[in-house]
């Protein structure tokens, strides 16, 4: 069975067929293989390997040479920089590295594989190979494809792998045609394949070569090979071939030949290569389903793009782009349009056996045309009924050769691809090119003008031309100064056909010494050449200098196209070499400016209109196959060269006397002839060409080929100037509003009369002028600039009410009823519009907003805590705690709008007054620590207050837990007294306290601790006074002892319990100072940029027990030494007096800003003001006497 046939047998067949020289031997080898190794039931497994390009059961591999080379390199495990890898990647290039196989990818790959694979076959069968190829086609990633190729390499040798690569590339190069293989397989195989395009069906139905198959008709859902047209070279020869028959001539559209198969709602779009194109479904399927009046049919036609603004079909090449736009749901002025010119199947019946005339009648009954979307091409009606006024018809019945010539002339003027002549009595034949349909294109009659271009680069060929330069990159010169040679050349096109092998070899041999290898990204092109570096433009070699190069005379289809690949402004369609100009020096090649003028003068073509440029001196390969009898020239003068007949025009005025007008383009509401007659009527002249005698170039719009060429001539005037002059019957001075384009010299002259936006200094403007000026001004993209001028020129206007504000709206309507949710959404929409009208911005990101506006139902009160606990992210919650960020209710916006001014946010703020501005991360940590540390009051109740140990513990109550470690040494020796700054700075940020110098209190006078002290601190002091009276928190008002100090004091009391309280306190203070010096140094380093990790950890531990009341009293913390703390613990009344004095002093100091005491910075070099010192020991002694 075929499934068990080894791949080596098929490889031997391929080798024998390739080596055989005659077609008969090739066919006999193929027939012998079928009879010997294949059974009828398994023909398809072998045929899909022999004809891989016709196999539609297996999808595309997605592997062209460049991608396949990379996959093979990875499958072999080679480095991409190795010589073999570079040889595989640069398979087209010749030389010592690539060898004689250059240009043939499979041979290059086989030579590389030969050194890495064994010579013996791996035993791979046809079935296994087909399975692996199916997996390769269905693999999506490159890694999967590489793995399958690696499996193939392990199971084959180099010779087998070479043919597998050729099967993947679908190009076996056997030297035997598809027609011969089909005929040898079965006499009816080709006919069956033409109507089904199904290789598997052919192999299954035609198993017996002797038994003939009844001719099968076409079916809906199976692609059919299209009928083709035979080429003719002039209208006379075409008419001669169809002489005596009823002939219809149609426009040959430049689009995609598509068959539409409709089976109810199932629609397929098959190309001429019988591939389905599902990308057309989104743009066409609904139109096809609604406007085709039968359930089942097959249409033959052309898929084009209709431009609704130009009211004509767009140029070739935009089908895929428009199809993708339709798939993405993008609106465009262009849309897909299908032009059906034949019908092959209706209902359940094939109609290809009916005449074309009958099929046209049937087409009109089945298809309902929809302008710009679905059209039919028939002589009477259809697309002809939708053509613009004055435009030529798209299809007509001809009765003489003059009718054909006239129709062909109109086709050239309309820049269409050509014409098709059809026999109205003929049947539709699949894949037929017998002559029932004939095609005539402009380049068949006479090509475009011969253009002398310079070779600037070359491309390596493939196949028999592999390893050598087979194509050339040619360029146009940039026009040099007078009496100078050109020094810069623009890439123009890529050309390789037209020369015989001998002529090509001669050119390459002359240029080879001057070839310089081009490596993109590693080397740049020579400075003489201007290129785009497009991937399709990059040559393999450059000509090192233009002086060493050769001029080629090239020709092409007469139509030019906009070039995006090459540096020249226009390119050519189907360029080919006419001859080599050895007689011309390099510097006499065509320049860009002359080429643009040629394109302009010929209405976007390169046609001269004479046959002189078509005389060919050299013999080319094309001429050897040309029939001289068919190449009869037809003299055709395009309409744009024919002058308007103005013989009947009578002159009215002479306002345009001595003026020569050239019209680049005209508006759709006017014709060119009407403008010409208008100019002559008022004494002027007009020219059909742009030459030096033209004084005024007139245009309606600033686009098109003619417009680009006219810019080289000078100023371009808007057509409205001509109309205004004629209506007012006087020559109106040319104002800037009438210019579409200004040359540099004219701009300099007008600088004294107009500003940069063409606003005249001395002329009055009307509304139309102002609109045009505003259109000339480019809108600034800088938002800061816009905001500056908006604030400057309308500061009090309601349009700038919310200037520089960005709002984020929060609507809390999740738990409300549906009615309330609708009302809130409407209110939210209204407020957003009001904000936009007031110059504000709406932000969808809280990080970009300045205001958070909370919108809620009247009965639902939203506070700051509920916002913090809502669904905001951690970063957004942190942002809401910042000072500059406003969290307000919607009533603030309502009041702003009502009063017409932006109100202060403070009274509408949802942030609580006691919420200090801090970092949300720190507040979260405090909350977690508060939950983790036990309640201080419960712990305090368990401690006996009579013992010295318990008294020291009380001094480390919850007030010291809520503060960061601050160190205050006592008055010991020469050490100066220090105290930390308040934890809450002026800006409201939480910082680590730093030790600072402060003067000691003098007598009963209190010292102002912080300039932030307010009346609130007074109330805090009263609270502390009450606590002191109750015997609680005696040490909370004085000093701050860290947890380390607390533990240290506890141990110290246990060890020295026999000491007096005063001595124990003094010893503790000494040890405290020793430990404090290290921490103070750490604080100083932190201020200089050191990390605060250790200190921050301590702060987190201590702040865990922070209470709300103690947080308020934090502003009046007075740092004292342990001796003072001990005295206050012994005599509570001393602390009460101090509180009263502090409150009175605070109130007095608030009344005068000048009396505010600054907190000195801790600096060893700064000497504090000396004041009279008071010894606590002396005070203690006096008190002990009384006590």
UniProtKB/TrEMBL annotation:
The highest taxon in the source lineage is Eukaryota
Please state the Enzyme Commission number of this protein: 6.5.1.1
Q: Where is the composition biased (Acidic residues)?
A: 1012-1028
In its UniProt record, a GO molecular function of this protein is:
metal ion binding
Comp. bias (Polar residues)? 603-615, 981-996
Give the subcellular location: Nucleus
Cellular component, GO, one term: DNA ligase IV complex
The name this protein carries in UniProt is DNA ligase
- InterPro entries recorded: Adenylation_DNA_ligase_IV, BRCT_dom, BRCT_dom_sf, DNA_ligase_ATP-dep, DNA_ligase_ATP-dep_C, DNA_ligase_ATP-dep_cent, DNA_ligase_ATP-dep_CS, DNA_ligase_ATP-dep_N
Q: Where is the composition biased (Basic residues)?
A: 619-630
**Where does this protein come from, organism-wise?**
Durio zibethinus (Durian)
Q: Region Disordered: list its residue ranges.
A: 603-631, 940-1029
Q: Which GO terms describe its biological process?
A: DNA biosynthetic process; DNA recombination; double-strand break repair via nonhomologous end joining; nucleotide-excision repair, DNA gap filling
Catalytic activity annotated for this protein?
Answer: ATP + (deoxyribonucleotide)n-3'-hydroxyl + 5'-phospho-(deoxyribonucleotide)m = (deoxyribonucleotide)n+m + AMP + diphosphate
């Amino acid at each position: 069975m075929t499934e068990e046939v080894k791949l080596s047998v098929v490889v031997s067949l391929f080798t024998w067929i390739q080596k055989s020289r005659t077609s008969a031997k090739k066919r006999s080898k193929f027939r012998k293989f079928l009879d010997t190794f294949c059974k009828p039931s398994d023909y398809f497994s072998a045929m899909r390997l022999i004809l891989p390009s016709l196999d539609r059961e297996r999808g595309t591999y997605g592997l062209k040479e460049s991608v396949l080379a990379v996959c093979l390199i990875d499958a072999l495990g080679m480095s991409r920089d190795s010589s073999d890898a570079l040889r595989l990647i640069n398979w087209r290039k010749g030389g010592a590295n690539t060898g004689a196989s250059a240009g043939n990818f499979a041979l290059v790959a086989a030579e590389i594989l030969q050194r890495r694979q064994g010579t013996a076959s791996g035993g791979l069968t046809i079935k296994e190979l087909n399975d692996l190829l199916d997996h390769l086609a269905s693999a999506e990633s490159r890694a999967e494809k590489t793995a399958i190729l690696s499996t193939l390499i392990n199971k084959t040798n180099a010779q087998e792998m070479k043919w597998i690569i050729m099967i993947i590339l679908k190009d076996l190069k056997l030297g035997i045609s598809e027609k011969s293989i089909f005929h040898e397989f079965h006499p009816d195989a080709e006919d069956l394949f033409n109507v089904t395009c199904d290789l598997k069906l052919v192999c299954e139905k035609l198993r017996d070569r002797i038994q003939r198959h009844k001719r099968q008709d076409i079916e809906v859902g199976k692609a059919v090979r299209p009928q083709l047209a035979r080429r003719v070279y002039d209208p006379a020869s075409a008419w001669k071939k169809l002489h005596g028959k009823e002939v219809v001539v149609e426009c040959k559209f430049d689009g995609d030949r598509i068959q539409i198969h409709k089976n109810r709602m199932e629609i397929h779009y098959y190309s001429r290569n019988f591939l389905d194109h599902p990308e057309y479904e989104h743009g066409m399927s609904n139109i096809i389903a609604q406007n085709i009046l039968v359930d089942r049919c097959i249409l033959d036609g052309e898929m084009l793009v209709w431009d609704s603004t130009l009211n004509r079909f767009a140029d070739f090449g935009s089908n895929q782009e428009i199809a993708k736009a339709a798939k993405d749901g993008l609106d465009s002025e262009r849309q897909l349009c299908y032009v059906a010119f034949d019908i092959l199947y209706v209902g359940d019946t094939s109609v290809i056996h009916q005449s074309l005339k009958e099929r046209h009648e049937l087409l009109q009954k089945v298809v309902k045309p929809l302008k710009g979307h679905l059209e039919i091409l028939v002589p009477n009606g259809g697309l002809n009924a939708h053509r613009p006024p004055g435009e030529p018809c798209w299809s007509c019945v001809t009765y003489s050769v003059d009718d054909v010539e006239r129709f062909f002339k109109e086709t050239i003027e309309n820049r269409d691809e050509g014409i098709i002549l059809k026999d109205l009595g003929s049947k539709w034949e699949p894949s037929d090119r017998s002559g029932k349909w004939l095609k005539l294109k402009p380049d068949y009659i006479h090509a475009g003008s011969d253009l002398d271009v310079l070779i600037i680069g070359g491309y390596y060929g493939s196949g028999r031309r592999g390893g050598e330069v087979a194509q050339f990159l040619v360029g146009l010169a940039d026009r040099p100064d007078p009496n100078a040679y050109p020094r810069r050349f623009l890439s123009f096109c890529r050309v390789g056909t037209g020369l015989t092998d001998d002529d090509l070899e001669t050119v390459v041999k002359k240029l080879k010494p001057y070839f310089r290898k081009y490596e993109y990204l590693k080397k740049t092109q020579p400075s003489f050449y201007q290129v785009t570096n497009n991937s399709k433009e990059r040559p393999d070699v450059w000509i090192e200098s233009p002086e060493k190069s050769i001029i080629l005379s090239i020709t092409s289809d007469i139509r030019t196209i906009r070039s995006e690949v090459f540096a020249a402004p226009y390119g050519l369609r189907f360029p080919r070499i006419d001859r080599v100009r050895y007689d011309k020096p390099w510097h006499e090649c065509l320049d860009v400016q002359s080429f643009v003028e040629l394109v302009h003068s010929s209405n976007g073509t390169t046609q001269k209109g004479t046959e002189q440029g078509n005389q060919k001196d050299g013999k080319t390969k094309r001429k050897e196959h040309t029939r001289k009898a068919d190449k009869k020239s037809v003299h055709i003068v395009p309409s744009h060269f024919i002058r308007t007949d103005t013989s009947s025009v009578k002159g009215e005025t002479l306002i345009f006397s001595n003026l020569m007008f050239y019209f680049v383009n005209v508006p759709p509401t006017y014709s060119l002839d009407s403008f010409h007659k208008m100019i002559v009527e008022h004494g002027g002249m007009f020219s059909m060409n742009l030459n030096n005698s033209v004084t005024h170039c007139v245009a309606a719009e600033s686009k098109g080929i003619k417009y680009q060429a006219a810019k080289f001539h000078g100023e371009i005037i808007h057509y409205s100037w001509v109309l205004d002059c004629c209506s007012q019957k006087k020559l109106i001075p040319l104002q800037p509003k009438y210019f579409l384009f200004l040359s540099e010299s004219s701009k300099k002259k007008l600088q004294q009369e107009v500003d940069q936006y063409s606003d005249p200094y001395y002329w009055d403007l009307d509304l139309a002028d102002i609109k045009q000026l505003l259109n000339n001004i480019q809108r600034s993209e800088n938002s800061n600039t816009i905001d500056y001028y908006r604030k400057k020129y309308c500061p009090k206007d309601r349009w700038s009410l919310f200037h520089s504000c960005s709002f984020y709206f929060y609507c809390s309507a999740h738990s409300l009823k549906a009615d309330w949710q609708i009302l809130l959404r409407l209110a939210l929409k209204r407020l957003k519009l009001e904000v936009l009208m007031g110059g504000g911005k709406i932000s969808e990101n809280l990080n970009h907003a300045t205001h958070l506006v909370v919108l809620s139902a009247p009965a639902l009160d939203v506070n700051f805590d509920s916002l913090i606990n809502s669904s905001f992210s951690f970063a957004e919650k942190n942002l809401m705690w910042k000072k500059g960020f406003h969290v307000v209710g919607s009533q603030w916006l309502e009041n702003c709008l009502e009063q017409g001014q932006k109100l202060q946010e403070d009274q509408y703020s949802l942030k609580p007054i006691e919420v200090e501005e801090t970092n949300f991360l720190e507040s979260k940590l405090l909350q977690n620590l508060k939950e983790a540390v036990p309640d201080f009051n419960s712990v305090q109740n368990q401690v006996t207050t009579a013992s010295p140990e318990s008294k020291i513990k009380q001094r480390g109550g919850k007030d010291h837990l809520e503060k960061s470690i601050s160190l205050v040494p006592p008055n010991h020796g020469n050490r100066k007294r220090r105290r930390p700054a308040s934890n809450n700075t002026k800006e409201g940020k939480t910082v680590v306290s730093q030790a600072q110098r402060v003067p000691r209190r003098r007598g009963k006078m209190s010292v102002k601790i912080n300039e932030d002290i307010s009346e609130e601190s007074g109330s805090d002091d009263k609270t502390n006074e009450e606590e002191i009276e109750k015997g609680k928190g005696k040490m909370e008002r004085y000093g701050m002892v860290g947890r380390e100090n607390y533990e240290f004091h506890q141990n110290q009391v246990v060890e020295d319990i026999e000491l007096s309280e005063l001595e124990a306190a003094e010893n503790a203070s000494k040890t405290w100072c020793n430990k404090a010096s290290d921490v103070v140094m750490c604080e100083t380093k932190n201020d200089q940029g050191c990390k605060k990790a250790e200190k921050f950890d301590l702060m987190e531990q201590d702040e865990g027990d922070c209470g709300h009341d103690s947080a308020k009293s934090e502003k009046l913390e007075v740092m004292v030494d342990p001796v003072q703390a001990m005295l206050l613990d012994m005599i509570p009344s001393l602390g009460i007096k101090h509180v009263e004095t502090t409150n009175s002093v605070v109130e007095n100091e608030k009344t005068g800003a000048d009396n505010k005491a600054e907190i000195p910075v801790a600096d060893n070099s700064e000497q504090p003001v000396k004041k009279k010192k008071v010894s606590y020991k002396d005070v203690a002694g006096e008190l002990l006497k009384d006590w």
